[in-house]
Structure formats: C-alpha cells, structure tokens
C-alpha cells in the first residue's frame, strides 16, 4: 500500500512499524518543530468534540504523528466520554476515506488490498468486492455479528439482499458496518496505552482541553417517567387481572421497573397478583435481575426489536423511532 | 400437564414403560460434543434436576434407566464446565435451534380436537372455562393433532428448511430435524460459523424467518411528503425477502409503474405497509422466537420420550415421508386396560383407534399417550 493510502489509515500495523523504525522518542515532542503536529492534533480533537469530522489530509508522516499525538492527548485528558467521542469521530473519518477509496478506486488490486488490510486482517471479516459493481459480499454470520448492534430497521437481515449464505452490500454500507469496531479499536488503543511521562507541551494542551470540554460531559440522567409504554401497560393489566404472564414478559416488566428506579420491594408487590406467585422465588429473581444475586450483572430492559420478535410489543404512534421501552414517556428534569 | 395423572398407579405404569424403552433402546442419535453439554430432567413429581454432565451415551442411558424421568433435556450451549452453576459454566457457543409448533399455526380444526382438562379434579371439559365438575379448577388444554395439522406443520417445516439452506446458506450436514414428540418440529443447526452468535444476532435471524420488520423501502417504496415515491433498490429485488415480496406482488426490477399502481390500490404508503405485513406473515414461518434467541436453553433430548405424549423426539431424515404418529411411536405394544375420560379417535402406529367406552383395552403406547395427555387413567385392576 502506498504512503498516500496509508496516511488515511494510521491505525494499521504499518504505522506502528514506521514509528518503531524511525526510533522516535517521546522527548522529541518538546522540540519546537513538533509544535505544528501538536497544534494539528489539538485542532483535530476540537473538531471531533464539536461533532465534526476532521477531513484535512496531510502527508503520511504528519498523519501518523498527528494520530499518535491525538491518542496521547485523549489519554492525558482522561475523561471517558471524551475518549469515546473522539474514537467514534476518528472511525467516521476513516469511514469517509475508505468508502471513497473502495467506490472510486479503479484498480481492483488496490481495492482488494484495502479490503485485506482493514476487513480481513483487522476485523477477521471475509469480504469480497465485485470488480465492476463494487458490491461487497460477506457471510451471514459476519454480517449478523455487526448489524445486530445497529438500531436502524434497515440493517435487519430481512431488509438486506441475502442469498446462499451471503449478504450483499454497497461499499458505503460495508464500511458503515465496521464503524463501531473501528471506534472500539481506537478506544481500546487509548485505554491500553501506558505512558509514564507525557511530554510537557502535550500535557499542557491536554489540561487546556480538559478544562474547556470536560464540563459538557457531566452525566445527566435526570428523567421523570410521565407514562408507561404500551408493552408495560399491557403486562401490568394481565398481572392485575390475576392472569399468567409468560416468562419473557415478566423479565421485561421487572427489568423496566428496576430501570426506572423502582425498589425491589415495589417490583415484588406488583408480581403479587400472579397466579403462581411465590414470594421467595420472586424476591430471588428480582434481586438477580437487579444484579444483587447470582451473576451480579444488572439486566437491561429488552429492546423494542426484541419485544417485537417475542410478541410483547403493542406499539402506539408515540413509540415511533424508539429503540427501547425505557425511552417512552420520559421528560428531562431541569 | 395435570399432576393428578402422574400420581400412584399411573406413575408406576408410565415409569415401567419408560424404563423398558430406555433400557432396550440404546440407539440415541449422536450428540455433537456431548461432554460439553448440560443435561437435566424433570421427574414425575415435577422436580427438575439440572447441571448434569455425561461423557458417553452409556452413562446417560444408565441415569435414565435408574431414575426414569418424565422429560429429559440437554443444553443447546457448549460449556467448558457443564455441571457447574450457570455463571461458572464458561459458555463456548450454542447450536442454533428452531421450534415450530402446531398451536402457533392457528388452524381452524384445532378446536375440534382440543380437550380442556381441569387442573384440580382432572375432569375433561368442552370449553376453557371454570371446571363444570368441581367448580374450582382452571382448565389446561391438550390436543390430539389431526392429519390436517400434521400436514400443515410439515409444510412449515419444509419452508423453514428452505430458509436455512437457500437464504442463510447453512450446509445440509449441519442441520438435524427432529419431530418434537408432541406437536411440532425442532431444527438443530450446529454450523461452527453460527455457534458464536449472540442473542441479538439470533433474534435478527428469528425475525428473518418469521417475517418481522420488512420495510417498504426494501422493495423501493418510500414515504414522500404526504404520499410516496418509488425507486427500486440498486442491489435488486431478486434475492432474500425482496424476492419473496416481489414474487407475491408480481413485480420485477422493471415494474416501477406496476408497483406504483399496487401502492395506490392499497390506499398509499400506510396501506401498502399493511399489505406487506400480510405478505410477510404468509411467507414467514411462525417459529418460537424465545427458543431461538436463548443461548442458554435446555432443550428436549433427541431420542427421549416426550412426557406430554409418550412419543419420541425422533430424528427425521426426510420431511416428505416422515410420519410422526408412526415413526415416533416406539413404546410397547402389550395390551393394558384404561379408564377413558372422554370419547375420542386417534391414529398411532398406522392404526385407527375409536375409543368410546369408559373402560378400554388398548396397546401400551396408546395408554401412555392418553395418560400423558390427561385423557385417561390406568385401570386399577392392572
């Protein structure tokens, strides 16, 4: 792969090899000629924190160093939300380059090499690009593992072109499919970085950025539920009538009530109307879902998609565009 | 299932027949990675035993002969430590399982052969209301599937097989089909590429097979202002669900005008979406979503007796020729006397039985079938 292509993909193995080969030392960042790189990295991060993709592209060496400084800056800022946001925008930047390269590149050999480097080597996805149509073909399991993390209905397998165990996507879609993994890859690199001493200039820039942006990421989770979603209302009606509720509906009801802040006792009280109510078992199961017993994992409310497929969804107009019942009827507290 | 039926004489009789089957029938279907599965069973007193592990079929059969359970289960999941508590088992993957059942087909004949049995006194009622005999119990329904039911479920099983082979591309050697032993089919897919799919990915497969969530945009009909616009997808409408829908609508890649007319005939975008839902429901297979989505499920053991019917969960090598009431009926022929609770007809082992008296002499496999369904008890004079 040529250096102009590699400049767009600084997270590849080749970039780390380049840094090792040049025997670059962190102390060199304090030299005045490196200021340009550091300022460029700051500019890039500020763009990302404002929700913009940094699309300037420089030559290979500059891009690799800028990427490295960006990671150092993010690590030094040390705010989880900032790390996640910058990783996502870095992934979207790559997505933009990769999508263009795959659809406009005329050389099939170059296309295949890109696919090999990014899809196969990095993410173990066996994907093939058609030489004329640029339609990508990947196996159903490879597709499912990624698409099932997307909330949009269009990514459901039923809405895709599927034949003989393969899913057919255009290049934009194929690249979009790996955005989350790319973002996770960058995030993991930041998380696993071990820095014993951050160069002074980078440290002071990181302090400035933290001061300027960290306030935006104070976690605000103050919502008030004004109305229960129809799926929950339906389950409550059945329980109130003293009728039997299937296991999956009990799971939905209990996880929902716990998620909106009801106490375990409140939840148990609701289940008292079940025809097969047993306080000891219910108490254990509710505590289990709350993450206090057994595996100590707090269970999430099943997604709307899941509820639809289990016949537990009774959607009304207000449910449109929701991905989880927890989003229904809530208002932010100010 | 009525606990009443599994008390005293009935339990003794059923246990004898079940034990004989497990003792004589050692040809259990091959279980892939048996040593990594969790096994469990339900005893006749309803107590469930779980977290068992067996390395060989011999060990498993010995346990079944010793304890004679009502139902036997094994996990679709593979674990490093299958006999440990669930959060310590170390999940290593799970077969993809599909379950289709006659009751989910909503067939019009279902009511004709459904019986409602009181869970307190065991009386057979004609409706699902409070028991008219004891005025206390609620009625559980049980059904004796008729020929129409069995043909309908077979048709759905063939559709499911087509989805797996031609859409999802699962190789035939990875698919095992079993009659559930009561009123449906179980498909086990042990494709190594599918084994690591998480629950969300499996739910995506479930929706594909049921036909949930097909968007009108996938066939080229988009909402536009107060109306709609048509632009057929570049990637075509000749594969997967797009093909099924296009074929139901009678359109192809060049039918933009025809499609526009169809949407208008259905009253516009919303009406067309309703039409698509109907097409999807008709072309999909009503599998049990919870079964497929669950990656830790214990599932009826192939070759074991189904406690709801006394029939075997039998392997089905050819859906077209498989006859559940014959091929899955493997219990003893020896005659016994039963007290019948209601008049009924049934066909087992290619024999028609028309049972009308309160006391009837029948082969053991018929007696087991009716006792398991709560429609008869063993005669005390045995």
Poorly predicted ranges of chain A = none
Give the amount of beta strand of chain B, in percent.
15-25%
Number of strands of chain B: 19
Helix content of chain B: 25-40%
Number of helices of chain A: 15
Count all strands of chain A and give the number: 6
Radius of gyration of chain A: 25 Å
Query: What kind of assembly state do the chains in view correspond to?
Result: heterodimer
Uncertain runs of chain B with pLDDT below 50, 5 residues or more?
Answer: none
The structural domain count of chain A equals 2
Mean pLDDT of chain B: 91
Distance between the termini of chain B: 23 Å
Largest sheet of chain A: 4 strands, antiparallel
Largest sheet of chain B: 4 strands, antiparallel
Strands of the largest sheet of chain B, in order across it? Answer: 2-1-3-14
Describe this structure in words.
The complex is a heterodimer of chains A (334) and B (382). Chain A is mostly helical and 334 residues long. Chain A contains 15 helices and 6 strands. Chain A has helices at 3-6, 13-21, 35-49, 60-77, 80-104, 108-123, 140-147, 171-177, 179-192, 200-213, 230-240, 247-259, 264-271, 279-289, 304-309, and strands at 127-129, 136-139, 161-163, 166-169, 223-225, 330-332. Chain A has 2 domains: 1-104 and 183-217, no CATH class; 219-333, no CATH class. In chain A, the strands form 2 sheets. A 4-stranded antiparallel β-sheet of chain A has the order 1-2-4-3. A two-stranded antiparallel ribbon of chain A has the order 5-6. Chain A is 54% helix and 6% strand. Chain A starts with a helix and ends with a strand. In chain A, helix 3 (35-49) runs parallel beside helix 10. In chain A, strand 3 and strand 4 (166-169) form a beta hairpin. In chain B, strand 7 and strand 8 form a beta hairpin. Chain B is of the alpha+beta class. The longest helix of chain B is centred in the middle third of the chain and has 21 residues, at 147-167. In chain B, the strands form 7 sheets. Chain B has a 4-stranded antiparallel β-sheet with strand order 2-1-3-14, with no helix packed on it. A 3-stranded antiparallel β-sheet of chain B has the order 6-11-10. Classes of the chains: A mainly alpha (334), B alpha+beta (382).
């Amino acid at each position: 792969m040529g250096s102009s292509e590699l400049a767009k993909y600084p997270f590849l193995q080749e970039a780390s090899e380049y840094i090792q080969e040049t025997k670059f030392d962190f102390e060199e960042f304090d030299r005045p000629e490196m200021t340009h790189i550091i300022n460029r990295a700051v500019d890039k991060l500020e763009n990302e924190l404002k929700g913009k993709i940094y699309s300037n592209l420089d030559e290979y060496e500059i891009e690799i160093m800028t990427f490295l400084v960006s990671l150092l800056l993010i690590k030094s800022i040390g705010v989880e939300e900032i790390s996640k946001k910058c990783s996502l925008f870095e992934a979207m930047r790559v997505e933009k380059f990769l999508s263009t390269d795959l659809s406009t590149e005329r050389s099939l050999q170059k296309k295949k090499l890109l696919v090999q480097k990014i899809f196969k080597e990095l993410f173990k996805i066996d994907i093939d690009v058609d030489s004329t149509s640029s339609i990508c073909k990947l196996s159903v399991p490879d597709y499912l593992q990624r698409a099932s993390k997307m909330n949009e209905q269009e990514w459901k397998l039923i809405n895709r072109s599927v034949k003989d165990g393969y899913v057919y996507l255009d290049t934009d879609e194929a690249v979009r499919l790996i955005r989350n993994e790319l973002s996770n890859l960058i995030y993991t690199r930041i998380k696993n970085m071990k820095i014993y001493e951050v160069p002074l200039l980078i440290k002071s820039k990181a302090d400035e950025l933290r001061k300027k942006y960290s306030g935006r990421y104070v976690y605000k989770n103050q919502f008030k539920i004004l109305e229960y979603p129809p799926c929950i209302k339906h389950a409550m009606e059945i329980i109130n009538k003293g009728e039997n509720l299937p296991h999956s509906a009990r799971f939905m009801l209990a996880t929902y009530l716990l998620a909106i802040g009801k106490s375990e006792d409140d939840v148990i009280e609701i289940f008292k109307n079940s025809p097969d109510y047993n306080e000891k078992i219910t108490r254990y199961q509710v505590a289990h879902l709350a993450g206090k017993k057994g595996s100590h994992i707090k269970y999430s409310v099943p997604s709307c998609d899941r509820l639809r497929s289990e016949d537990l969804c009774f959607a009304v107009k207000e449910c449109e565009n929701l991905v989880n019942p927890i989003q229904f009827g809530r208002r932010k507290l100010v | 299932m009525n606990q009443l039926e599994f008390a005293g004489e009935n339990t003794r009789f059923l246990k004898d027949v079940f034990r004989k089957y497990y003792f004589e029938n050692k040809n259990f279907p091959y279980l892939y990675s048996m040593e990594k599965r969790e096994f469990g069973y339900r005893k006749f007193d309803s107590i469930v035993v779980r977290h068992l592990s067996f390395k060989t079929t011999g060990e498993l059969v010995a346990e079944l002969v010793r304890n004679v359970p009502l139902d036997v289960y094994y996990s679709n999941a593979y674990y490093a430590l299958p006999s440990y508590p669930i959060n310590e088992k170390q999940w290593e993957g799970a077969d993809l399982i599909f379950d289709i059942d006659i009751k989910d087909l909503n067939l019009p004949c279902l009511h004709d052969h459904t019986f409602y049995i009181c869970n307190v006194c065991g009386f057979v009622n004609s409706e699902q209301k409070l028991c008219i005999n004891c005025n206390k119990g609620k009625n559980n329904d049980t059904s004796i599937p008729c020929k129409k039911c069995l043909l309908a479920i077979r048709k759905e099983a063939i559709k499911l097989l087509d989805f797996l082979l031609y859409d999802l591309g699962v190789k035939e050697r990875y698919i095992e089909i079993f009659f559930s032993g009561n009123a449906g089919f179980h498909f086990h897919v042990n494709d190594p590429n599918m084994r690591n799919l998480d629950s969300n990915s499996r739910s995506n497969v479930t929706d594909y097979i049921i036909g949930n969530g097909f968007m009108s945009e996938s066939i080229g009909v988009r909402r536009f202002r107060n109306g709609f616009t048509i632009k057929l997808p570049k990637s075509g409408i000749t594969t997967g669900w797009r093909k099924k829908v296009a074929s139901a609508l009678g359109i192809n890649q060049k039918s933009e005008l025809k499609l526009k007319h169809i949407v208008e005939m259905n009253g516009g975008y919303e009406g067309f979406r309703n039409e698509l839902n109907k097409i999807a429901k008709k072309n999909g297979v009503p599998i049990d979503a919870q079964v497929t989505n669950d990656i830790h499920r214990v599932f009826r053991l192939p070759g074991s007796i189904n406690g709801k019917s006394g029939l075997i969960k039998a392997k089905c090598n050819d859906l077209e020729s498989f006859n559940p009431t014959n091929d899955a009926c493997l219990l003893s022929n020896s005659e016994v006397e039963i007290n019948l609770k209601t008049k009924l007809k049934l066909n087992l082992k290619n024999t028609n039985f028309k049972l009308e008296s309160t006391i009837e002499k029948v082969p053991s496999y018929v007696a087991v079938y009716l006792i398991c369904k709560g429609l008869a008890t063993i005669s005390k004079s045995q």
